[in-house]
Amino acid sequence: NAHTCEEARLPLLKRERIKFALWETSAPLRESLVRAFKDASIYLLHDPDRWQWLTTWVNGFLEQMWVDISDEVEHSLLRSILKADTKELRGGQWGDRSILVRLCLRVRAFILHHYLPYDKSIFGKLKDPVYVCIMVVTLLPVHPLRTIVFGVLLVCLLLPNKPDEYMLLTFILLFKGTQFLTGGFTTLLTGTMQYFYCFSVHKQDFLSCVE
Questions:
Q1: Contact at 8 Å (CB) between 94 and 15?
Q2: pLDDT digit string, tens, across residues 27-45
C-alpha cells in the first residue's frame, strides 16, 4: 500500500519540480518587470521643485513599498503555481486514509457540493432539495440548531486542508445574512406582532402583557 502511494506521488513530484525549474528560470524577467514599474513610479512622482528632504522621504518610501510588493507578488505567484500540498507530497496525515476518514471526506464532499456548489447559481441551488433543506434549517430562529449546522459547515471547510478563500468568504456572507434574517428581521417581526397584539387586546394591562 505504501509502495503504491509512493508510485502515485512520483508524477506529482516531477510536475512540481518542472514548475519550480520554470519559476527559477523566469526570475530575471520578473525582477526586470518589477524594477521597471518601480522606476516608472519614481519618475511619475518626481518633482524638481519639491523640498529635498521630502523627495528623499518619498523615494525611500517608494523603495520600501516596492520591496514589499515584490515579496508579496513572488509569494502569491509561487503559491498559485505550486499547488501541491506538502502533506500530499509526503504522504503524511492524510496520505493513508482509513475507512472512517474516507467516509468523513465523502460526507464533507456531499455537504459542500450541495451547499456551496461551484457550478450553480442561486436559481440552480434552489432546485436542489438538499440545499433547500439546509437553507431552511439555517433560517429557523433556533439558535442552537443554527450553531450546530454552521459549525459543521465550518469544520467541513477547514478540514482536511486549508480552506478555499472563495468558499470561506461565501460561508461568512451566508452566515451573516441568515443571522440578519433570523436574529434581526424575524425578531423584529415577532416583537412588532406581540406589541400590536398587546395594544389591541390587552390595552388596559399593556405593560404586563409586553413584559
A1: no
A2: 787 788 878 888 887 777 7
Q: Which residues, at least 6 apart from 107, have a Cβ–Cβ distance to it below 8 Å?
A: none
Burial environment of residue 82 by CB neighbours within 10 A (0 to 12, 13 to 18, 19 or more):
middle
Q: How far apart are CA 66 and CA 60, in angstroms?
A: 10
Is-contact 109 159, C-beta < 8 A? Answer: no
* CA atoms of 16 and 30, how far apart (whole Å): 20
Q: What is the pTM of this model?
A: 0.49
In the numeric block, the cell 409586553 is attached to 210
| Domain locations in the chain as residue ranges | 2-80, 99-206
pLDDT of 140 over the 70 cut? yes
pLDDT at 60 over 70: yes
120 CB-near residues (< 8 Å, 6+ apart): 128
Compute CA 70 distance to the chain's CA centroid, rounded to the nearest angstrom: 24
